[in-house]
Write a structure and sequence with these properties.
Length: 146
Amino acid sequence: MSTRKGSRHKARRAAVQALYQWQLTGQEPHDIEQHFILGHDMEDVDIEYFHCLIREIPLHKQVLDDHIAPHLDRKVTEVDPVELACLRLGTYEFGFHPEVPYKVVLNEAVELAKTFGAEHGHKYVNAVLDKLAQKLRPQELSARSV
């Protein structure tokens, strides 16, 4: 799935790892971003998209968490950090990147939760983002059901 610019999948994968680090350490996103670029294999990564995710998700944390919270069975602060990083990533893409189809957003977040999260964490991510898609992408969902 590599393009001339690099893979958005790989950008999301690196972003989830960086967001996880940001959530646990409270480091500045810029510092984490630099760490990832210097310390990880970023070949075939859509670097521009990675930059966007790492800079924008922390900036919109409260808005994203406000969207996520009503669909949780616990407080946002009690969600597993990997699952929370996947939820924030998916919610951000739903709200700020309408060019990315909702199925792609959902599938990517679920796959990342499978890769990095707890055994059944991907099911939780799927359920929450499915509800959020109905709220944040209603036109896209209704167009698909016609």
